[in-house]
Amino acid sequence: MGWEWGQLQLIRELADRGSVTAVAAATHRTPSAVSQQLKAIQRQAGIPLVEHVGRGLRLTDAGRALAASAGGVATALAEADATWDAFLGRTAGTVRLASFFSAGELLVPGLVERLSAYPELTVETFDEDVATADFAALVVDYDLVVAHRPDDTEPATDTGVRVTPLLREPLDVAVALDHRLAGREQVEPAELVGEAWIAPPPEFPIEQAVRALAARAGAPARIVRRTTHLPLMEGLVARGQGIALLPRYSTQEHASGRFVLVPVTGIRAGRLIEVLSRPERAARRAVRVVLAALQDEAHRIARGGAPG
Asked: 232-239: long-range contacts at Cβ-Cβ below 8 A with a sequence spacing of 24 or more?
């Protein structure tokens, strides 16, 4: 058919974003201009690539096949660019990195230090604290997305998303300094029955771990406060207004003199932190360098070593 790359990109954007309005906003065009381009592409194809659903459009099977091929083309082009940059010994460009709040605090300062060796490389960082199931959709707008999910769950299965593991972060029970469990080296789930819990909403990994603890203990968790803001959870715990499951590496520096972290035994409690990306963006040399630096920083944190 002699497809042009811009045509393939437009079809893929519609596949990823789901509406002409969203595609227009992302590509800095008017919805009318996007609609006209889609009509032109469809005339060239000779078969329907989109169909009306209510007041919107969606891709047909033929359109989705074309969108899938666009991903392969984009990856091949990015790999060619990366090979050429490697030949020239050049690492330059801008990488957009999104992460949930506590991962940003945990990883970004060390990442920036590691990347100081690449003066032509710019990393733009963004906060995206969304539900576990919503992280994969962010790869449309960012080069790298730091996501988390509970232990013993499957990673994103979308073939358009590449998943790179970073680390497993244990979840410990946080209690006030004068709490009955504050002096313990570890705690069993059954010992937490009846406690007032502070937890995130159900779609977040920590809350799912709280429910797993409750199931093991044989009694429902009594959740009295809900928030996704870890500093607020820490403050409430420190004042004796409840207990919480908190991520060990992200929290341990905040605990000293304020509250105590007690490991849980008898159940695997943790969250898996990983990086999501589109394959073609992961192929870029600049993105590869940032991803490798993230992995190095994650390994340092897991080992408890010094930055660098």
From this structure: 233/174, 233/198, 234/174, 234/258, 234/259, 236/198, 237/174, 237/175, 237/176, 237/198, 238/176, 238/177, 239/176
Range of the domain at 190: 171-268
263 and 277 belong to one structural domain: no
Q: Residue 118 is part of a domain; what is its CATH number?
A: 3.40.190.10
Domain count along the chain: 3
Cα torsion 110, 204, 222, 181 to 10°: value is: -20
Largest CA distance in the chain: 74
Any domain includes 230? yes
Contacts of 205 (CB under 8 A, 6+ apart): 132, 148, 149, 150, 271
Strands 93-99 and 244-247: unpaired
User: Cα–Cα distance between 178 and 240 in angstroms, integer?
Assistant: 8
Q: Do 152 and 297 lie in a common domain?
A: yes
Token reading at 241: 């207004």
Q: Are residues 240 and 218 in the same domain?
A: yes
Report if residue 134 sits inside a domain: yes
Overall size of the chain counted in residues: 308
128 and 276, same domain (yes or no): yes
Token pair of 154, please? 């499957």
**pTM (two decimals):** 0.83
- What pLDDT tens digit does each residue of the chain (308 aa) get? 567 878 888 888 888 888 888 888 888 888 888 888 888 888 888 888 888 887 778 888 998 888 888 888 888 888 888 888 888 888 999 999 999 999 999 999 999 999 999 999 999 999 999 999 899 989 999 999 999 999 878 776 666 789 999 999 999 999 999 999 999 999 999 999 999 999 999 989 999 999 999 999 999 999 999 999 999 999 999 999 999 999 999 999 999 999 999 999 999 899 999 999 998 889 999 999 999 999 999 999 999 854 54
Same domain? For 17 and 45 the reply is: yes
